[in-house]
Design a protein that fits this description.
Blueprint: E1 2-3, H1 5-18, H2 20-27, E2 35-36, H3 47-79, H4 93-125, H5 130-157, H6 162-190
Antiparallel strand pairs: 1-2
Helix pairs in contact: 1-2, 3-4, 3-6, 4-5, 5-6
Keywords: Coiled coil, Oxidoreductase
Domain Hemerythrin-like: 56-193
Enzyme class: oxidoreductase
C-alpha cells in the first residue's frame, strides 16, 4: 500500500535517518518519493479476502497452464516443420523455444516464491493444513529442480533442429505431468480452507 501525507513523511524520515542517502536523494529532487508499506498476509481478517486469494490461485494456475500450452504449440510447430507466425527470414527455432520456455520457467518460479510467502499465513490460520503445506514446499523444491534441468537443456544444448525439439517436448511432457499433479494437490489442499471450489 502506498503511504501518503504525515505517515509517509514520518516513515521516510526514519528511513533517511538509518540510511542517509535516502534523505540526500530526496533533497535533490522535487518529486515526492513514494513509500510503500508491505503488510503480512492475515487470513483471519476477511472471508471475502480469503475467497479472493483462492480465486487468484486458480487464475495463476490457469495462466501457467496457458503459458505451457503456448510452449507446447511452439514445439509442436517445430516438430511438424511449420514455422510459427514470425518472419521466416529471421526465425530461429532455438531462440524462439528458449524464449518461450525461459519465460514460463521464470513465471512459475515467481508464482512459487509468492506462494511460499503465503504458506505461513495458511499454517497460522489453518493448522490442520501443515502436513499438506509441508508437502507443497517439498514439491516446490522438486519443481525448481525439474525447471533447472529444463532450463539447462534449453540454454546449453538446444541448437534448434527437430531432434532437439523432440527432446525438449519429452522433457516438457515429464515436467508438465509433475506440475499438473502439483497444481491439483495444491488446489485440493488449499481451496477448501478459503471456501473456493474450482469450476470443472
Amino acid at each position: 500500500m502506498v503511504l501518503e501525507g504525515e505517515e509517509r513523511d514520518r516513515l521516510y524520515a526514519e528511513q533517511s535517518a538509518i540510511i542517509p542517502s535516502f534523505g540526500e536523494y530526496q533533497a535533490k529532487t522535487s518529486r515526492v518519493i513514494p513509500v510503500v508499506a508491505l503488510n503480512k498476509l492475515d487470513l483471519s481478517v476477511s472471508g471475502e479476502r480469503n475467497t479472493m486469494i483462492g480465486r487468484q490461485l486458480i487464475a495463476h494456475h490457469d495462466d501457467l497452464r496457458g503459458a505451457l500450452a503456448s510452449v507446447r504449440a511452439e514445439i509442436d510447430a517445430a516438430l511438424n516443420g511449420a514455422t510459427p507466425s514470425v518472419d521466416v527470414s529471421t526465425f530461429d527455432l532455438g531462440a524462439q523455444l528458449r524464449g518461450h520456455c525461459l519465460r514460463f520457467c521464470y513465471d512459475l518460479q515467481m508464482h512459487h516464491t509468492r506462494e511460499d510467502g503465503s504458506f505461513t499465513a495458511f499454517e497460522q490460520q489453518f493448522p490442520e493444513l501443515r502436513p499438506a503445506i509441508s508437502r507443497l514446499r517439498e514439491e516446490h523444491h522438486a519443481v525448481e529442480r525439474a525447471l533447472a534441468g529444463l532450463e539447462e537443456l534449453i540454454v546449453r544444448r538446444l541448437s534448434g533442429d527437430a531432434s532437439d525439439a523432440e527432446r525438449l517436448r519429452a522433457e516438457l511432457d515429464r515436467t508438465v505431468a509433475g506440475l499438473e499433479a502439483h497444481f491439483a494437490y495444491e488446489e485440493e489442499s488449499l481451496l477448501p480452507a478459503v471456501n473456493v471450489t474450482r469450476a470443472r
